[in-house]
Amino acid sequence: MALALQTFSTVKDANAALKAAGTRYLGGGTLVVRAANEGDVSVSGFVRSTEPSLSAITVSGGKVSIGASVTMAAIARHRDLAPLARAARAVGGPAIRNMATVGGNLFAPAPYGDFTVALLALDASVSTNGGDLPIETFLATRESHHAIITAVGFSLPLEGGFRFLKVSRVKPKGVSVLSIATVLEQAPDGTVSSARIALGCMADRPMRAKAAENALLGRKLTSDGIAPALAVASEGTSPVTDPIASAWYRNEVLPVHLGRLLLA
Amino acid sequence: MAKVPVQFTLNGAEKAEFIDSGTTLLNTLRDKIGDTSPKGGCHQGTCGACSVIINGELRLSCLTLAETCNGAAITTTSGLSEGGVLHPLQRAFLDAFATQCGFCTPGMIMAAKVLLDQTPNPSREDVVEALSGNICRCTGYEPIIQAVLTAARSNSQNAA
User: Fold this and answer.
1) CATH architecture of residue range(s) B88-159
2) β-strand A23-25 against A45-49: which pairing, if any?
3) Under an 8 A CB cutoff, do A5 and B22 touch?
4) A17/B contact by beta carbon, under 8 A
5) Percent of chain B beyond pLDDT 90?
6) Which of A80, A167, A200, B130 could link A177 by a cystine bridge, Cβ 3.0 to 4.6 Å?
7) Phi, psi of A22 (to 5 degrees)
């Protein structure tokens, strides 16, 4: 049976309609229409907003704001977001990237949501009409989040400071075994002065590898320098087991891929 | 439930239908309009068999609600041939035996058409990337890739 779609010109009106039980916000459709097609009976209707600000990308003074309806394809081809193109292209195939939105990716359960891993490393803020939330706070409580996401914001990383890696068995497109995003700053002598490492598929949602971050501080990005970080990379993880990989396998290969990313 | 109107251009022809709100574009095309070239494979966005071109972009019609396509220009594989003459991609797929069971073919051709529209002389890697969201369960990928490369060459020869 078809599920009725309500379209509103403002986020405010869409937010009001979203209060009805069983309604889901429709972004690109790659999560909620998929759920409905699969027979998810908790979905009883769709709500969407066509407010233009949801589709806007602004880059000014090193600050980036990406509207929640912006697609992965739009990010991948945006001239000022070149450092993020790799992470945006990691999502799905070409058709999915033309549909999947930033806002939807924030809700994608593992093994999906690779772009959110990048946003977590970038310490993004998640905006609604009610205000902004740090992405870590948002991710911890996303199931209970009922206000429409309007945008994500973050500071553009320094040249070469952002790194992203998605590991999948099928090339060029495959579901993640895991994904890793890092934002590193280095002192003039090459030692790491600040580090944020985000992991995908290592829990039911993107998480930070805080032990590895701490172990990197003051170290150089050499095999010896990163060894302590790799030794604690799996600390606090609880990876998903799915047809792509077991939790055991994900924990085994995480230090290998983190090492490759840090030494790249 | 009251029906809702949808109106769009399908392969150059105006189409207007009344549908149940929330109906997917795939079901609207196949069941209301009768264009059965997009196939319903997984209905999960995984297989690419339902791929169509909406306003020049490749999309999955199984995950697209028809109401969101009001005013759009939609292209499906059934609109590619002109006057009984196959499109170069269709010709190349036939000649290269790239169809096998044929179920994934319309989606593959849509993905390939978007590629060739944007990149007339693609590399093999370009073709693999462009088709990466389309699954062929006959696993006949090599002839498919060759067919797209052949169609690109044929296009560039015709243009010369």
Assistant:
1) Orthogonal Bundle (1.10)
2) parallel
3) yes
4) no
5) 91
6) A167
7) 85, -5
**CATH for the A163-263 domain, from 3.60.21.10, 3.30.390.50, 3.40.190.10, 3.40.630.30:** 3.30.390.50
The pLDDT mean for chain A works out to 95
Do B65 and A37 count as a contact with CB atoms less than 8 A apart?
no
Spell out which residues of chain B touch residue A37, defining contact as CB-CB under 8 Å.
24, 43-44, 62-63
Residue of B nearest to A29 (CA): B63
Is any Cβ of chain B less than 8 angstroms from the Cβ of A26?
A: yes
Fold observed for domain B3-78: Ubiquitin-like (UB roll) (3.10.20)
ipTM here? 0.95
Residue B30: its pLDDT value, please? 98
Class for domain A52-155, per CATH?
alpha beta
pLDDT at residue B160, as a whole number: 59
- Nearest beta carbon to residue A98 from set B1, B57, B130: B57
Q: Are A226 and A264 in contact (CB under 8 A)?
A: no
Tell me B85's DSSP state: B
Q: How far is B23 from chain A (nearest CA, A)?
A: 5
Question: How is the beta sheet containing B51-54 ordered, strand by strand?
Answer: B13-20, B3-10, B73-75, B51-54, B57-60
Dihedral angle computed from the Cα positions of residues A30, A31, A35 and A41, in that order, rounded to the nearest 10 degrees: -130
List the one residue out of A174, A175, A116 whose CA is nearest residue A142: A116
Measured between CA atoms, how close is A214 to chain B, in angstroms? 37
Residue A208 amino acid letter: R
Rounded CA-CA distance A172/A253 in Å is: 19
pTM score, two decimals? 0.95
Name the one residue in this structure whose structure tokens are 């007339």.
B120
Whether residue B17 lies within 8 A of chain A, CB to CB, comes out as no
How high is the pLDDT of residue A61? 92
